[in-house]
Amino acid sequence: MCGIVGVVSSAPVNQLIYDALLLLQHRGQDAAGIVTQLDRKFFMHKAKGMVRDVFRTRNMRALPGNCGLGQVRYPTSGNAFSEEEAQPFYVNAPFGLVLVHNGNLTNAHALKAELFSNDHRHINTESDSEVLLNVLAHELEKTTRGLPLKPSDVFEAVRGVNRRVKGSYAVIALIAGHGLLAFRDPHGIRPLCLGRGADGSIMLASESVALDGTTHQFERDVAPGEAIFVDLQGQLHSQACSDKAQLSPCIFEYVYLARPDSTMDGISVYQARLNLGETLAKRVISTVPPNDIDVVIPIPESSRPSATQLAHLLGIPYREGFVKNRYVGRTFIMPGQSVRKKSVRQKLNTIVSEFKGRNVLLVDDSIVRGTTSREIVQMARDAGARKVYMASAAPPVRYPNVYGIDMPTKEELVAHGRSIEEIRQIIGCDALIYQDVDAMKAAVAQARFSGAGALSAFDASCFDGVYVTGDISADDISRLNESRPQTEEGAEDNSRLALPNASE
Questions:
Q1: What is the pLDDT of residue 85?
Q2: Distance from CA of residue 128 to its chain's centroid?
Q3: pLDDT score at 490
Q4: Residue 407 to residues 170, 291, 471, 495: CA-CA distances in angstroms?
Q5: Cα 217-203-263 angle, rounded to 5 deg
Q6: Quick one: pLDDT at residue 163?
């Protein structure tokens, strides 16, 4: 999961890209990078860390030009601690290309071997994004054959990429001296949208919130399998580059990943979460009598809309019982100290008065490993709760995600191979209520604006085990797990609860 942005304008774009990346910071906090172009020359700065820490005034001054792109990274493959794997990636032929990528290639290993043996291209990192860049470069080279570049050549190259690459990918690239290219995989698993500024600038970004916050008018989502090419004069060209395109966006974007004020593929993220709370309320009623619940308390932050709607429909008071520490940084391991992993109690603190002597219903957006949920349940008991019920706005996470969310292996998932009662015992709550898979899909689909048409499919693979690309076997999952980000001793949990929170 990453956040990407690209801009073509008649004015310098460095500040505009910086501002957009700040608005997408929730999608990745590991590294950030910006590339701009001036007179066919690229200017790049990237490093590990948050946007505000990576870019100083001197770095911004060294990024001239009226077009550029940027990324905030949350690593899902390769080495999470390598500066070399921060994006954008660059290759000098053909033309000169830089690329940012959100998603995960499921056939990166095979492509890497193919690039070396057949295409004679060298990959220097473990990043699947560098593989994708080189596939694009090879297809562009093959299409143009040394001739001047035309939009039709760009689209033919993207067709070649779509034929070779499997998995999820939303991509923005700069072609030196020619313009900006953006495209989305044929299933549209990862989001990408298009907007225009009052000055005629064109922006592409992972979420509409990046457009809103930089005063760009949202125009539309990039369609699955579509490529958009914006030349340096600001002329936009677009074309469908896949014959098998079908929109199947990742449903976890709506459950957790995206900001609530974003709209993606015609769906209001906030409304989707309200709808999830409404359907979850029906599940709660069938499990726990509402008069046995004194208060509904969300686990910050993404579960708030669902918890609010659930409490309203059940007629039960909604209260904030947990306060989140937004400034928990890295735990440093000093000489002589033992390895210490971060506790949930460093991130959350209870307001004891909201728990003491009450039967509380805790609402979370999802439950992955169960370790965090278990600790939160114990925190509620320590604060004096008589009974602690737990409700998840998402169904049980039973399968690994292979499309760009760093989730644990199936053996680490608390719901894999277990009944709800067995999960409840592990978490330690008095009752455990999960969302239904079909109800989740219906709730999110119903949040689509009336003019956007019906949405027939989602990628909900971590819930139902159905991988929309149709090319995932048990061996593939095992191999992809081996390529998950390398971690350091003592590093904190990199599962869902360690992801940057959408509401921050």
A1: 86
A2: 16
A3: 37
A4: 19, 36, 19, 5
A5: 55
A6: 96
Same domain for 146 and 278, yes or no, is no
Question: What pLDDT does residue 165 have?
Answer: 96
Any domain includes 386: yes
Are residues 300 and 176 part of one domain?
A: no
| Residue stretches of the chain with pLDDT short of 70 | 76-81, 328-342, 408, 482-504
Please give the residue range of the domain that contains residue 410. Answer: 273-325+343-454
Q: Which residues of 273-299 are buried (b: 16+ CB within 10 A; e: fewer)?
A: bbbbbbbbbebbeeebeeeebbbbbbb
Catalytic sites, residue numbers: 2
Please report the pLDDT score of residue 41 as a whole number. 96
pLDDT of residue 346: 85
State both tokens at 180.
């900006």
Rounded Cα distance, 493 and 373, in Å: 13
**pLDDT for 223:** 97
In a domain, 317, yes or no: yes
At 495, the amino acid letter reads S
Using the structure block, give the residue that is written with the tokens 């004891």. 352
* Within a domain: 191: yes
201 in Cβ contact with 9 (< 8 Å) = yes
* 8 Å CB contact between 243 and 237: no
